[in-house]
Write a structure and sequence with these properties.
Helix 9 packs across helix 10. The protein starts with a strand and ends with a strand. It has 569 residues and is of the alpha/beta class. It has eleven helices and 14 strands. It has three domains: 225 residues, P-loop containing nucleotide triphosphate hydrolases (Rossmann fold); 49 residues; 197 residues, Helix Hairpins, CATH 1.10.287.
Length: 569
């Protein structure tokens, strides 16, 4: 139960820089009176501002600051929940929001929005709408329960019955369902991926075995053909080597002809020159008996001797020259034979060389083919590793299938839980259990206020009204005074339910101008009896400018405006 103890404020609305303080748990019934504009309803705005950061009458936040001082707007409240004392301090200019637990300031690292959310959910355990339905009944901006939308009615009842946790759980489950659906999508993709990997690995192993053996056979056939080619080339070389050796031997026998021809040519040139010289000398002495140069006569004997000598030398040289010509001819024949042999040797050598090149090429191909055969053989021998890889893919596929089944089972469980936690599920069943009590209490308080109708709410919080005069009524059908009686009956009922549930129970009840317009004199008397003798464990504040009520309350607080500032007197 929340026990509100004191509230105080300064520079708030029309209040000055001095604190205005009210003890909230001092008297069972307290009447707050004052003229219009004196500030008697300020307590409502101060209470909702310090707890929820907003005014009860819908005043904009900047307008809550006293227009004269324009700073240091502060509201503070003390209350107790169980053995824990709480002190809340909230202000404007500067902005202040401090929560003290047993005198110690709570960590303020969170944002003010998150801090407010934590405060409502953890400490107060109710939001602004629920608070105004249980603690405050006002005549200004207050919206009675029957004028709330269906969603807001449900929100208030869920707060009262402590079943908002189901809505929170439902939100959590919705998020979990979304996460699991994302995980299912991921596992579906993984499943498809592993299915593809298993299929490709099977095809690879099958192809490895079939293609490997086929390639080995093709390679071996190529090696055999290449070996046959090498044998043919070697056989061809062997057939060329025998004449090659013969030609080389023959060439060795006639080698050096070119050098002999050169020497014989030089000798032939010398002999030819000498023959020319002798021929000229013979011609000179034959044709001349007188020297043509010096004109001296040449002795005949000398001339004849010279002629004879020249003829002898000419014969001798002629004979040698013929022998030299025969020798040259012989060497020329040998040189031609040498050239013919060289060509044959070159032809045979070139053929052998070409065959050797082809043999080397075949051997390289054989080496490559043997290497390929070895690699394929090793792959075939190591295909167990590929089978192990296939088994690994299958294991991962099975794990993925298991994860998918697990997630789908989990999402079915969450879907079932989600259906239970929806508005039509567990919450509706709990509300149905409390509806008879709620309807009973509402009609009890209506009878206490001398209003004899049968007012019931269904699980959707739509009203059904029956009266002795007319069967079909609705809340909107009644006068303002009758509506006020229904609003009060609902307010008292909500407090009774809150007292039973305890989590949102509070000692404080404030009613603003409930006597001043809608309740007639008889209704006022019945209402005063209820707050005196029926409402228990409560500190009730009634704000009114109606006269003649002071003697009916234990305590009276009067507000007046002095020199432009509101205060208690």
């Amino acid at each position: 139960m929340i026990i509100f103890k004191t509230i105080k404020w300064r520079n708030f609305l029309s209040t000055g820089n001095q604190y205005t303080s009210i003890d909230l748990d001092k008297s069972t019934t307290t009447l707050i009176i004052g003229n219009n504009g004196a500030g008697k309803s300020t307590v409502l705005d101060a209470l909702t501002f310090v707890l929820f950061g907003k005014s009860f009458r819908g005043i904009n936040k900047p307008q809550l600051i006293n227009s004269t001082n324009e700073k240091d707007c502060i509201v503070e409240i003390d209350f107790q929940i169980g053995s824990i004392d709480w002190h809340i301090k909230r202000g404007i200019k500067p902005s202040v929001f401090e929560i003290y637990r047993n005198g110690s300031l709570i960590d303020q690292t969170a944002s003010s929005v998150d801090q407010q959310k934590w405060f409502e959910q953890t400490v107060l355990k109710m939001n602004y709408k629920s608070f105004t339905q249980i603690v405050i009944l006002g005549s200004s901006t207050f919206v009675p329960f029957m004028q709330l939308s269906a969603a807001h009615r449900r929100e208030v009842i869920e707060d009262l019955l402590d079943i908002k946790i189901f809505s929170s759980m439902n939100t959590v489950i919705k998020e979990k369902i979304r996460q699991i659906k994302d995980e299912i999508k991921t596992f579906e993709l993984k499943k498809e991926s592993f299915l593809d990997k298993v299929k490709m690995q099977k095809e690879f192993i099958e192809e490895l075995e079939n293609r490997g053996n086929a390639n080995i056979n093709v390679s071996k056939e190529k090696i055999v053909k290449l070996d046959e080619e090498i044998g043919n080339y070697l056989k061809n070389n062997s057939s060329m080597e025998k004449p090659l050796r013969k030609y080389i031997q023959e060439q060795d026998q006639i080698i050096g002809s070119a050098e002999k021809l050169r020497k014989l040519g030089n000798l032939k040139g010398k002999i030819t020159q000498k023959i020319l010289t002798i021929t000229e000398e013979h011609k000179f002495f034959t044709e001349n008996s007188v020297c043509p140069t010096c004109t001296q006569s040449i002795e005949e004997i000398f001339r004849i001797n010279k002629i004879n000598d020249a003829q002898d030398k000419a014969k001798e040289l002629q004979s040698g020259y013929q022998e030299l010509g025969e020798a040259i001819k012989e060497e020329e024949d040998r040189e031609r034979q040498f050239t013919i042999l060289s060509k044959e040797i070159s032809k045979l050598t070139n053929g052998i060389s070409q065959n050797n090149i082809k043999i080397s090429g075949c051997r390289r191909q054989i080496k490559d083919l043997e290497s390929e055969v070895q690699i394929i053989t090793e792959q075939l021998e190591n295909k167990n590793a590929e089978h192990e890889k296939l088994e690994s893919f299958k294991d991962n596929l099975k794990i993925t299938y298991d994860e998918l089944v697990s997630r789908k089972d989990l999402i079915n469980y969450y879907d079932f839980s989600y259906s239970l936690l929806k508005d039509g599920g567990v919450k509706t069943k709990i509300i149905k259990k409390y509806l008879p009590l709620i309807n009973q209490q509402v009609n009890r308080y209506l009878r206490m206020m001398d209003f004899y109708i049968n007012f019931t709410l269904d699980e959707e919080f739509n009203e059904t009204v029956k009266s002795p005069i007319q069967e079909d009524f609705s809340y909107a059908s009644f006068s303002e005074g009758e509506k006020m009686r229904i609003d009060l009956a609902l307010l008292f009922t909500w407090r009774e339910v809150a007292r039973m549930k305890n989590s949102v129970n509070t000692n404080l009840l404030i009613m603003d101008e409930v006597f001043d317009s809608s309740l007639d004199g008889f209704g006022t008397e019945e209402f005063l009896k209820i707050i005196r003798y029926v409402i228990k464990d409560a500190n009730i504040f009634v704000i009114s400018h109606k006269t003649g009520l002071q003697d009916k309350f234990e305590r009276v607080i009067k507000f007046e405006k002095i020199k432009g500032f509101s205060g208690m007197v």
